[in-house]
Amino acid sequence: MAIRRKISISTIKELKIEDQRINDTEISGFHARISKTGRITYYLFYRLHGQQYNYKIGTHGDLTPVQARDIAKLRSADVAMGKDIQEERKEAKAETKRRYHLRLDRYLEENYFPFLEARNPKTSRKTVNEIKSAFKEFLDTDIDKITPFQIEK
Predict the structure, then answer these.
(1) Which pLDDT tens digit goes with each residue over 92-115?
(2) Which own/partner contact pairs does 6-14 have at CB distance under 8 Å and 24+ positions apart?
(3) For the purposes of burial, counting CB atoms within 10 Å of the CB of 33, is it exposed (0-12), middle (13-18) or buried (19 or more)?
(4) Tell me, what's the pLDDT at 19?
(5) Contact at 8 Å (CB) between 18 and 34?
(6) pTM here?
(7) How far is CA 4 from the centre of its chain?
(8) Residue 124 pLDDT > 80, yes or no?
(9) Using the 8-state DSSP alphabet, how is residue 3 labeled?
(10) How many structural domains comprise the chain?
């Protein structure tokens, strides 16, 4: 059952697995959940445009209850202004995924090699290996970060 008390260090220490959840009395929607393994995670429940969301703030150990409360206050203010706080995380995740494919070594293996393989299977591997050996220092660099000046060096 959920308990309704101010989330503090002492209430977190008293939290038992059977309790499952503790709702904060000061900040609406701020709560902590305890998993079956005993891991405590802080969340902020909110509604925006008729949808319900549960925003994960962080885990106990990485954050203290006071730090989690401060983050919850900031995020509550953002929600009150009509800002979707989950959208920031979704955009960051999409950007990370997009940037994964921008590294030269991954681009050569996942995009350029299949293209060459379709055009000329006999020389495709040799071509990719020649590019890799000529540009070894750029293999772990994002393609959009490589400048003509760097290549001329």
Answers:
(1) 888 888 888 788 898 899 889 999
(2) 7/31, 7/32, 7/42, 7/65, 7/68, 7/69, 8/65, 8/66, 9/64, 9/65, 11/65, 12/40, 12/60, 12/65
(3) middle
(4) 83
(5) no
(6) 0.64
(7) 30
(8) yes
(9) E
(10) 2
Structural domain that includes position 52: 2-83
127, pLDDT greater than 80: yes
| Amino acid letter, 41 | T
Structure tokens at 120: 């000329």
Give 139's DSSP letter. Answer: T
Amino acid at 61: G
Token pair, residue 75, equals 């995020």
Task: Check which CATH number belongs to the domain holding 30 and give it.
Answer: 3.30.160.390
Residue 91 in domain = no
Sign for the pseudo-dihedral over CA of 76, 79, 81, 85: positive
